[in-house]
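Tokens in:
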């Protein structure tokens, strides 16, 4: 979807079909689907920030059993 690329939502663009399939499986309303997509975007952004911070610090997240 060109609009997602233009908005710089590349990861979402690459996963939009599976995300919408998941929303349909959950029988989410349009409002809930929008929230689901936003939550996914925020989680990916947070994950990217953590990874960037770790790479700058030269560390890694320890495994927790």
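Residues out:
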């Amino acid at each position: 979807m060109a609009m997602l690329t233009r908005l710089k939502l590349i990861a979402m663009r690459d996963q939009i079909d599976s995300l919408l399939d998941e929303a349909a499986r959950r029988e989410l309303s349009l409002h809930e689907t929008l929230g689901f997509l936003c939550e996914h975007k925020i989680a990916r952004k947070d994950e990217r920030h953590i990874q960037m911070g770790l790479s700058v610090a030269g560390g890694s997240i320890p495994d927790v059993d």
